[in-house]
Fold this protein.
Amino acid sequence: MNIDLTLQEERANLFSDLSWFAQMCLSQNGESEDSFKLLFKVWEKVSEKLWFECYWNDYLRCGNIVLKAARHINDVKVQAQLLGELGYACMEGEDFFQAQQCFQESLQKYQLLKEFSKECKLLRYLGNLANRQKQYEIALEHYHTAWEILKTKRSQIPIDDQLALHESELPNVIGCVYLELRDFSASYQQFNLSLKNYQILLEDYPNMRIRYRYYQADPLMNLGKWYFLQGDYEQARRYYQDCLLLSKEISRNDTMASTLLSLAELAEVEGNKEEALQLASESERVAGTEITSVRERAAIFKEKLLSKTIF
């Protein structure tokens, strides 16, 4: 399938095509499973592109079609996968209630399937959701539960890239909670452990380098925030710029928009209001219609900055 998903018309056509495939799956009792295999094959080809390009609304619309078909043929494994993915898209859109519902159902299914690696991922997702809602103790509880599972399984099975990814990402998200709690020592340690583990991951699995560089942007941005809160603006700028460069290289618009806004905040505290406005405007532009939370924060930042300039 060769379509340009950056075009809105193509994404609308994709929705129509998936709807047609799903209808075939739902209406053909004897051939439902074969129809679903074709439907899911199409989804697997397009879903990663939709996600990485931050077309989260289209991701949700199309993914829910596939989920409905997966429920129809009772494919529990695909249901668990889709519920986790759709839940994360809901969380990015700040629909926290629906995200919680998806994550919990996905976690239950992975526990039923005894897929510990996916179980750890869903615990991390639940921790991220709790952190977004400022439920820090709950977030840490989910993260530490995931760590305990990893520690147990690490001595029982060979380490693979998925296990290494968990060991890279968990310190980053734990560091985020500690930073919110202003435990600067613990958060710094966790962010640096995350970066170290990501570097090892990229070296050990060079064939997965393109995929896993996507996640490396987060601890870079978080270390920038850490230094910003410490008042070390030179180091903050260094990490923000590193994150921005990586985000541009891999076309990751969500961290690009967030980092531009962070650089705008840095420019403001340094007294460079014109630069701050330009960076915030660029953050709004990159966020577009999909990354609504960053776009709204950028708009509020600009409004406050302009009001200070007027008065």
About this structure: The CA atoms of residues 165 and 227 lie 25 Å apart. Residues 21-114 form a domain with the Serine Threonine Protein Phosphatase 5, Tetratricopeptide repeat fold (CATH 1.25.40). The mean pLDDT is 91.
